[in-house]
Design goal:
Structural class: mainly beta
Helix content: under 10%
Shape: elongated
Strand content: over 45%
Number of helices: 1
Length: 193
Amino acid sequence: MVRRINKVVLLVLGLALSASSFAETEFSYSLALGSTIGKVKTLLDGGDNPAADTSDWEAGPYVAFGVHGLYAERHELGLVASYSTADGDGLLSIRPFDYRYRLSDALRLKAFFGVARYDKETAAHGYYLGFGSEWRVLSHSKTDGLGLGVEFAYGDKIARDRVLPTDPPAIEASSPEIFYDMTLVNTYIAWYF
């Protein structure tokens, strides 16, 4: 788990160091409010076996704050922090790679990668990635306006240690961690400023 976190820290540092190339770049900030619907698979014994439990699809809130730089005519790269819920528990994600491609002035395709913290009985951490699209319904410039968006996100092998007395015992040669795979659909209205 520590190796995963170290890789993400290196990725964030790399993006921060390359930010100097954004010196002449226009930046936009965004606040997104909406809802998420998702389900969670609980995986035991290393996470490579069939799910021990799968939740029903459940709705919850979605809030995100981001900053993006326009570094070419059609390319935006930024950082987004979001909060939603999955199976009733909080999910915080930091996406140091949030890329958008402008198909037109109004329509953008996006892809993102980052890390997530899932607030179960003890915190679980893992990768968070996905793709989506966004339509700017009101825009006065390249960096402001209102948008409508939808994202398909996946939390991959978000892990926590088996430390609670209520945790199922680990089978010999299995992982000392419990894994969660989550599938989410986020819909939102974003305000750009």
